[in-house]
Design brief:
By secondary structure, the protein is of the alpha+beta class. The chain is built from 9 helices and 10 strands. Helix 6 crosses helix 8 and helix 7 crosses helix 8.
């Protein structure tokens, strides 16, 4: 059940058998969450952190007028609210974009990990730093990249993140996001997203059909996006 999370950890660091046993011994109950339902609500007290096992979730903030901004997409294997271990509540909602399965890790168990497994603690600390790096890259996209650059960059990022857990196909990956959800990620309108996707199709870079993305020319898509995966810290030698 927790294997996808372990694959994500081991993509960047060595996790010992003792550390794996500690992770497996810390997980609590799993539950299913329907698409569009809240996994975690802002400002509610939190006594456990949540690992996403299946499906896609998003960190979201809504304005009083009902407009939504997605600030990060969570993929299988992600600890979607590890920072709640210290914050004890979130300043944003976490919403299921698709049907999801999640598993809880009580904060009491995380506290035991910090005492008994300092290396694993650093690995989890790294994951919260990685979340912050992804947030910064999304801010750069929203503030400075063109519409086609924003869309291309997100498609490239999702490819790399899904490859880490062996969740891609030979030429792409399952892509459950609607154009409205893409717009909420990128600070664009759904109409603008539609036009931009059409542009990428006409350039022969992607094919998006039946909720599956095929990347037809990855090198050119990365060039359009000005995509540098350095912010995803895939180099195991940096720790």
């Amino acid at each position: 059940m927790i294997d996808v999370h372990l694959r994500k950890l081991r993509a960047r660091d060595d996790i010992s058998t003792d550390e794996e046993a500690a992770i497996r011994g810390s997980i609590g109950d799993s539950r299913s969450v329907a698409a569009h339902k809240a996994v975690i609500r802002a400002w509610e007290p939190v006594h456990e952190s949540t690992i996403l096992l299946r499906g896609w979730t998003a960190r979201v903030k809504d304005t009083e007028s009902g407009q939504r901004q997605i600030t990060e997409i969570n993929l299988p294997g992600d600890f979607i609210d590890l920072h709640s271990f210290t914050l004890k509540s979130l300043d944003h909602d976490v919403v299921a974009l698709t049907p999801c399965q999640v598993v809880a890790v009580p904060h009491q168990k995380l506290e035991q990990i910090t005492v008994k497994h300092p290396h694993l603690t650093r690995a989890y600390w790294f994951s919260t730093n990685l979340d912050a790096a992804i947030h910064r890259e999304w801010m750069l996209s929203a503030g400075r990249r063109s519409a086609i650059g924003r869309v291309a960059h997100l498609l490239c990022e999702l490819l790399v993140r899904l490859q880490i857990t062996d969740s891609t196909h030979e030429d792409g990956y399952d892509f459950p996001l609607t154009q409205t959800q893409l717009a909420d990620c990128l600070g664009l309108t759904a109409v603008h997203v539609n036009r931009t996707l059409q542009d990428l199709r006409k350039r022969g870079l992607i094919e998006l059909k039946d909720k599956r993305l095929r990347i037809l020319d990855l090198a050119e898509l990365q060039r359009v996006a000005e995509f540098d995966p350095g912010y995803l810290y895939l180099d195991r030698n940096h720790r």
